[in-house]
Amino acid sequence: MNAVPDKIGKYEIVEEIGRGNMGTVYSAHDPFSNRLLAIKVAHPQYIDQTRRGERFRKLFFNEAHAAGVLEHPNILKVYDADVEGELCYLAIEYVHRAQTLEQFGKPESLLSLREVVGIIYKLAKALDYAHRQGVIHRDIKPSNILLTEQRDIKLADFSIAMITRPDHNETQFTGFLGSPLYMSPEQINEEPLSPQTDIFSLGSVMYQLLTGHHPFRAMNLSGIAQKISREEPRQLDEYRSDLPDGLGYAVRRMLRKRAAERYSTGLDLASDLAMIFDDLDAVQDEDALREKFGTIKNLGFFKGFSDSDIWELIRACTWQNYPAGTTIIKENSEDHSFYIVLSGVVSIEKNSREVDRLQEGNCFGEMGYLTNTRRTATVVARTEVSLMKVNASTIDNAAEDTQLRFLKVFVRTLIERLSGTTTALSQLRPV
Question: Can you give the pTM of this predicted structure?
């Protein structure tokens, strides 16, 4: 393990706070300004005298050139850049206990809808400012966005930014640069870039923060390129049932294949998001969702399901309440959803005769989903009931192992019902 240096340049090192493949980050004290900041040091093997080392040094200091001209509350500030012997370092703003957005792009750890919209709103305004200063970020992704303890946002890492300012005359980086999953079609195809490139990448980030899934994930680079260039991502409502229409429109517009069809500026995007805030009051808050998680996590039906599976269902499914006496499903009707009883009792009827009763933790309607046929029975609420309605598309879009878990539950349910029927028949006596 490498020892922590006492000093780098004029900066007095406090402690190591992070380490990655390309470099190490320390907290440090600046004796001149008397403030705490962060020192980002490149690993020596990347700044040797080879052609690769020269390119890396240029990338490293490009961050200082790009961010150095930007002064915005939601952009991480770069104060200084220098080389000292074998050390190539940046002095940057220190954000205590900041987290990147990477961990909030999974179904089980999504932020509240209001917070996601607020984050993208701030990033849209920060990008609008950067674009007006002649800086295109080119690498917008969750790991380059910091969430502070105060729940504020800092956009970081301008190492591959394109600087279009008239007072900047250094040669720009060209070619295939960025993180493929978050690239725009024009980046993937190495075409001319514009501020709309960052808008597209921000759309991919927003999609992931809302759904827990990346819109263009594939098995390899060629698959990613194909999806980004030619395929439309799944609609947001296939993953969540609680999103206002305006939000779906905003994400779709951000992810248009043609740059000219996206938002022309970050400010235009921010204006649309500001209008959406009024529609979020009707959306359930995160506490209500967590209460639902606790409810279904304890149901026997979901034994063996991961927390991630359950969170996906909570956001994608609809929750319905019916008073006693309500017909929920009619025999011979077309409906390929299935239902899970959260509370209460329902009656299963065929030809107006009751054949079964189901209660908390049971499911019904699964045969209609599996066989894609008309309903073979009527289902009536015997008491006030609360149900979870699962659409066929929700399961079809789920991961393969999640689909297998549902099939196992359905098989188990069929076996239990057949066993119950056999027992009942064996108890019958001839009159």
Answer: 0.74
